[in-house]
Design goal:
With 97 residues, the protein is of the alpha/beta class. The protein has a single domain, classed as 3-Layer(aba) Sandwich (Oxidized Rhodanese, domain 1), CATH 3.40.250.10. The chain is 30% helix and 21% strand. It has 4 helices and 5 strands, in the order βαβαβαβαβ. It has a 5-stranded parallel sheet. It is globular, with a radius of gyration of 12 Å.
């Protein structure tokens, strides 16, 4: 499983890089703040909404602490997607929300 730090994600976004970030937290959690460019697809809906994702794109998967995102990464990798887990989740995020 590929892993990226929250700090590296923040640096890449700050440098103007376009990243595909999928937030797998529940909608109620996302209301408290999310990474500005991220798209919310709750973990429980991922298998029904993965058709919204492109297999040729790279995705960074985020949750609250890293547990659900690692489940999502394993699932999406198995389906043939190129995904990376953001280590520590939103608890490690120090950027804008």
């Amino acid at each position: 499983m590929k892993i990226i730090s929250a700090n590296e994600v923040n640096q890449r976004l700050s440098a103007g890089e376009k990243l595909n970030i999928i937030d797998v937290r529940e909608a109620s959690e996302v209301q408290n703040g999310k990474i500005p460019t991220s798209v919310n697809i709750p973990l429980g809906l991922l298998e029904f909404r993965m058709n919204e994702l492109e297999k040729k794109e790279d995705y960074i998967i985020v949750c609250q602490s890293g547990g659900r995102s690692s489940q999502a990464v394993k699932f999406l990798e198995y389906q043939g997607y190129n995904v990376t887990n953001m280590n520590g989740g939103m608890l490690a995020w120090e950027g804008k929300v």
